[in-house]
Amino acid sequence: MDILLTVLGLLGALGMFLYGMTIMSDSLQKIAGDKLRVLLTKMTSNRFRGILTGIGITSVIQASAATIVMVVSFVNAGLISLPGAISIIMGANIGTTVTAWIVSLLGFKVSIVAFSLPLIAIATPLMFTKKYKVLGTFIIGFSLLFYGLGLLQAQVPDFTQPQYASVLEVVGKLSNYGYGSILLFVLIGTIVTVVIQSSSAMMAVTLVMCSKGLISFEMACVLCLGENIGTTITANIAAIVANKTAKRAARAHTLFNITGVIWILILFKPVIYLLSHFVMALGGTNPLIPTAASIPIALSCFHSFFNIANTAILVWFIPTIIKILNKMVPEGDDEEEFRLKYINNGLISSGEIALEPAKKEIEVFSRRVVRMFEFIPELLVLKNDKEFNALTERTKKYEEITDRMEVEIAGYLTKVAENGLSKSGSMQVESMLRIVDNLESIGDSCYQLSLSIESKNKQHVWFSQHLRDNIFQMFDLIRAALAEMNDNLSENYLMVKGQRAEEIENNINNFRDKLREEHTEAIKNNEYSYQTGIVYSNFYAQLEKLADFAINVTQAITKRQ
Question: Which terminal residue of the chain, N or C, has fewer Cβ atoms less than 10 Å from its own Cβ?
Answer without folding.
Answer: N
